[in-house]
């Protein structure tokens, strides 16, 4: 390697490090601005959240933690966001920690348990093999989401208004459980906070879902 190549390499590494530092600072500022704007509070960790809900991304790996916990009110609903992480063995040896940003909005009442996950290639292949899924008769929605529920009344939540808002919310998982609706993304909250309004956008979807619930669905009989 010639001397000028070394100089260019060092300069490039320095520039990338500076950009990463500026991005991290912007993420922190954006989160702090939202906390101040909405009067939300934040605590470093809350162990009670680790096993409050079942299903992905919870209940996997070892040494689970709920950190960077944000709570407060948004558009008249109690909201919660936190980083959920756990350790798992890496195929090459050792362990790695997977992190998910989890968002929760309290519902006005308890509803039957229902989980929606974006349809993938494996789901489409299973349907081609004749393995039945729960469907609602809406071709666009059934093509976009896989429905999992244990209560026949749960699918009754998926009225047209709620389906429309779910489709508008983007390809992400959702779970209605008890008096809460959840969604989650791979990676910590701060990873997405470079977009100053991203956290609000996620809460907007969940609050809209809470407001789109039909009024005549019974409490859950199976959880």
What does this structure look like?
The chain has 6 helices and 6 strands. Residues 128-132 and 219-223 have low confidence and may be disordered. Strands 1, 2, 3, 4, 5 and 6 form a 6-stranded antiparallel beta sheet that branches. Helix content is 35%, strand content 33%. The protein has helices at residues 3-38, 121-128, 139-144, 160-168, 189-192, 198-211, and strands spanning 41-45, 62-74, 77-89, 95-118, 145-149, 174-186. The radius of gyration is 21 Å and the shape is globular. The protein has one domain (3-211).
Sheet-strand content, in percent, reads 25-35%
Element-level helix/strand string: HEEEEHHEHEHH
Which residues form runs of ≥5 with pLDDT under 50?
128-132, 219-223
The end-to-end distance, rounded to whole angstroms, is 63 Å
Into which percent range does the helicity of residues fall? 25-40%
The overall pLDDT, averaged over residues, is: 83
**Rg (CA only):** 21 Å
Class from secondary-structure proportions: alpha+beta
- Oligomeric state of the chains in view: single chain
Number of strands: 6
Number of helices: 6
Q: Main beta sheet: strand number and arrangement?
A: 6 strands, antiparallel
- What is the molecular shape? globular
């Amino acid at each position: 390697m010639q001397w000028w190549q070394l100089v260019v390499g060092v300069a490039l590494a320095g520039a990338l490090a500076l950009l990463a530092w500026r991005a991290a600072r912007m993420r922190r500022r954006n989160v702090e601005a939202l906390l101040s704007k909405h009067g939300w509070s934040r605590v470093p960790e809350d162990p009670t959240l680790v096993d409050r809900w079942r299903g992905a991304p919870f209940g996997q790996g070892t040494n689970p933690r709920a950190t960077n916990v944000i709570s407060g009110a948004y558009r008249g609903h109690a909201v919660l966001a936190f980083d959920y992480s756990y350790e798992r063995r890496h195929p090459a040896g050792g362990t790695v920690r997977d992190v998910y940003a989890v968002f929760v909005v309290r519902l006005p009442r308890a509803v039957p348990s229902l989980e929606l996950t974006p349809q993938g290639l494996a789901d489409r292949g299973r349907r081609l093999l004749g393995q039945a899924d729960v469907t609602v008769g809406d071709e666009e929605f059934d093509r976009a989401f896989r429905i999992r529920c244990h209560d026949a009344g749960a699918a009754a939540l998926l009225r047209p208004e709620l389906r429309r808002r779910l489709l508008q919310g983007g390809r992400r998982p959702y779970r209605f459980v008890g008096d809460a609706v959840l969604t989650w993304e791979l990676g910590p909250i701060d990873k997405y906070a470079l977009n100053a309004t991203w956290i609000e956008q996620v809460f907007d979807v969940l609050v809209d879902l809470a407001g789109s619930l039909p009024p005549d669905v019974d409490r859950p009989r199976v959880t």
